Amino acid sequence: MKIILCKNYYEVSLQAANIVAQQIKNKPQSVLGLPTGSTPLGLYKSLIKMNKENTLDFSGVITFNLDEYYPISRDNAQSYYYFMHDNLFNHININKQNVHILNGEATDPQEECTNYESAIEKAGGIDLQVLGIGQNGHIGFNEPGNTLKSTTNLTDLTPNTIDVNSRFFEKIEDVPKKSLTMGIGSIMKSKKIILLASGVEKANAISELLKGDITTANPSTLLNAHRDVTIIVDNAAMEG
Ligand code: GLP
Questions:
Q1: Contact status, residue 100 vs residue 34, Cβ threshold 8 Å
Q2: 2-238 — its CATH code?
Q3: Cβ-count burial of 191 within 10 angstroms (0-12 exposed, 13-18 middle, 19+ buried)?
Q4: To test the ligand 1 pocket, which listed residue (9, 12, 34, 39) has its Cβ within 8 A of the most ligand atoms?
Q5: What are the pLDDT digits (tens) for 3-54?
Q6: How many whole angstroms from 169 Cα to the centroid of ligand 1?
Q7: Which of 74, 84, 116, 235 shows the greatest Cβ crowding within 10 Å of its Cβ?
Q8: Do residues 42 and 13 make contact, with C-beta atoms less than 8 angstroms apart?
Q9: Which atom of ligand 1 is nearest to the CA of 131?
Q10: pTM, to two decimals
Q11: What's the gap in Å between 165 CA and the centre of ligand 1?
Q12: What is the pLDDT of residues 101-115, one digit of tens each?
């Protein structure tokens, strides 16, 4: 595991943007796995800037988002579908047919998960997976627990995640109780992974991850078993 220690959030975003840009330049048809949350916003801003300045071309890029609340409608401003279009896809020259986001309105969530997993495989697997991390160590919506699911699945959000994510909703009751998420296996199959973390709220989760042990109590620790992971953290997130 490689660690890039940054002074602050701005630097985390720049380092991540350089890695993503390099990936796309090396392979214009790259398959990217993308996260939501506050952390990747700086990265997305940098990518938009590069695209507008004509230094980065997204026309061949294929994306798969990590997760989505369930149930939630696409036009709900808190859906990850809305978030990704608002913060990235509407501002770059990506072919919208190459964008994949789990459908929070699916009538058969199990079928949605199976189809998503097949679509990733059909695209040739994920070349570069970008991850954030939850305060409790979740990646995607793979929550701490006794077991972790390998493939894309419908999962219950923990009270901690509902609480932490309620800051985006009007009231806590509005936070969906479930989500659709790529599984740990779906993430681990990615050829290369970068995980971004900024701020002291992430320090505990990061310190557990960097101990090197693997535990379902902190799903991010599974990354210790992957051979190409880079953690991009700022000083505050390293405080633990
Ligand atoms: C959400 C997402 C995760 C994300 C995490 C951290 O719960 N499902 O994929 O990594 O939040 O979010 P933030 O970057 O806002 O701290």
A1: no
A2: 3.40.50.1360
A3: middle
A4: 39
A5: 999 999 999 999 999 999 999 999 999 999 999 999 999 999 999 999 999 9
A6: 14
A7: 116
A8: yes
A9: 10
A10: 0.97
A11: 8
A12: 999 999 999 999 999
Active site residues: 67, 136, 138, 143
Pocket of ligand 1 (CB under 6 A): 35-39, 66-67, 132-134, 140-141, 161, 165
Which two three-digit tokens encode residue 220? 């991010």
Q: Which residues have CB under 8 Å from 174's CB, separation 6+?
A: 78, 166
Ligand 1 atom nearest the C-alpha of 40 is 14
